[in-house]
Write a structure and sequence with these properties.
CATH topology of the largest domain: Spore Coat Polysaccharide Biosynthesis Protein SpsA, Chain A
Mean pLDDT: 85
Largest sheet: 8 strands, mixed
Strand content: 5-15%
Number of strands: 8
Structural class: alpha/beta
Low-confidence stretches: none
Distance between the termini: 22 Å
Number of domains: 2
C-alpha cells in the first residue's frame, strides 16, 4: 500500500501574509480541481502578528483540503518547511511562498516532472524576476558561489517554488536557515536526480518583502555551513584530523630540523628561543594537536547530537 494519501501536498510557509491568502487559496484550489488532483494544502503560520492565522482557520472551513499549523513564535522558514514535510502525505510535495509571487499554474508541470519523468526534486528558476535591482543582483552572486561550492548546477537555488518526491521530504531534515540549500541536503541524502524548470514570477501584490541585506550575508555563512555539514557532518575527524596531522608533521619536521641545526650543524647560531622559525614550527605543532582534538570532540558530539526540532506548535486545523 502506498504511503501517501493524496496526489499533491502543497506546503506553504507564511509570515504576515494575510492579504494574499484568500487569493492564493482560490488559485491553487482552482488549478488542482481543473487537473483532478487530490490534494492537501498545509499552511504553516510562522508566528505571524497580523490576521494570518484567523484567515487560515476561515479558509480551512471554506476549503476542506486546507490544513493549518501555527507556531508559538517566529522560528523561520526552515522550521516551517520541516514541519510541513513531516505532515505531508502527498505523492508529490510542492512548496511555494504565500506572497503570490509563485504561480500555482506551474503545479501540473512540476507534478509531471516528478511522476512521469522520474525526478527526485525539481527546483524553480525565476529567470525573469520581478524583484528589486539589489535583490536580483545579490541573488545572482549568491547562486554563482552556491553552484561552485556545491557542484549542483541550479540557477536559482533558493527559489521557493519546488517539487519533491514523497520519499525525499521524508528523508531530509531542514533546520536553522538551511531551506536555501534543500537541493544540497537532498543530494547528500542520496537523491541525485535533481532538475530545474523555468517558472513565472509575479510582482509582489501585497505587503513588503522580508528580504534584507543581512539575509544575503547569512546566505554565504550558511553556504559554508552546508558544505561542511554535508561533507564532514558525520565524519568531522576526516577534516580536522587530516589538518591536525599535516600541521603536526610539518611543525615537527621544522622543529626537528631547527634542533639538529643548532646541535650538530651550526653550533654558533642563535639560541633556539631567539629564532623565529622555531616558534613558527612550535606553533604549528600546537595547532596540529588542537585540530586533532577538535576533530575528536566533534566526532563525540556528532554521535550524541540532540534533536534539532525545537519549534512548538500552538494550534492546528484539519490535521
Amino acid at each position: 500500500m502506498d504511503a501517501y494519501k493524496y496526489d499533491i501536498s502543497i506546503v506553504i510557509p507564511l509570515y504576515n501574509e494575510d492579504e494574499s491568502l484568500p487569493e492564493l487559496a482560490a488559485w491553487f484550489d482552482k488549478v488542482c480541481r481543473a487537473n483532478e488532483y487530490s490534494y492537501e494544502a498545509i499552511m504553516i503560520d510562522d508566528g505571524s502578528s497580523d490576521n494570518s492565522w484567523e484567515l487560515v482557520k476561515k479558509l480551512s472551513k471554506q476549503y476542506p483540503s486546507i490544513k493549518g499549523i501555527r507556531f508559538r513564535r517566529n522560528y523561520g522558514k526552515s522550521a516551517a518547511l520541516n514541519v510541513g514535510f513531516e505532515n505531508a502525505q502527498g505523492r508529490v510535495v510542492i512548496t511555494m511562498d504565500a506572497d503570490l509571487q509563485d504561480s500555482p499554474y506551474e503545479i501540473p508541470e512540476l507534478y509531471n516532472l516528478i511522476v512521469k519523468d522520474g525526478f527526485d526534486l525539481i527546483s524553480g528558476w525565476k529567470k525573469n524576476r520581478k524583484d528589486s535591482f539589489v535583490k536580483n543582483k545579490t541573488s545572482k552572486v549568491y547562486n554563482f558561489f552556491a553552484r561552485k561550492m556545491t557542484g549542483i548546477r541550479l540557477n536559482d537555488m533558493n527559489c521557493g517554488l519546488k517539487a519533491y518526491r514523497y520519499e525525499v521530504v521524508k528523508s531530509i531534515e531542514v533546520y536553522g536557515e538551511m531551506h536555501r540549500y534543500i537541493p544540497v541536503i537532498a543530494k547528500w541524502a542520496g537523491f541525485g536526480k535533481i532538475g530545474e524548470k523555468v517558472v513565472s514570477h509575479q510582482a509582489r501584490k501585497y505587503g513588503v518583502t522580508k528580504f534584507g541585506l543581512e539575509r544575503f550575508v547569512n546566505g554565504f555563512l550558511d553556504l559554508g555551513t552546508i558544505v561542511f555539514t554535508t561533507r564532514f557532518g558525520k565524519k568531522p575527524m576526516h577534516l580536522f584530523g587530516v589538518l591536525g596531522l599535516l600541521m603536526f608533521m610539518v611543525g615537527s619536521l621544522f622543529l626537528g630540523w631547527a634542533i639538529i641545526d643548532k646541535l650538530f650543524i651550526d653550533t654558533t647560531a642563535k639560541l633556539l628561543a631567539q629564532r623565529t622559525e622555531f616558534f613558527l614550527a612550535l606553533g604549528a605543532v600546537i595547532l596540529g594537536v588542537q585540530f586533532f582534538l577538535a576533530g575528536f570532540i566533534a566526532e563525540l558530539i556528532s554521535r550524541n547530537a540532540a534533536d534539532r526540532n525545537i519549534y512548538q506548535v500552538s494550534e492546528r486545523v484539519n490535521s
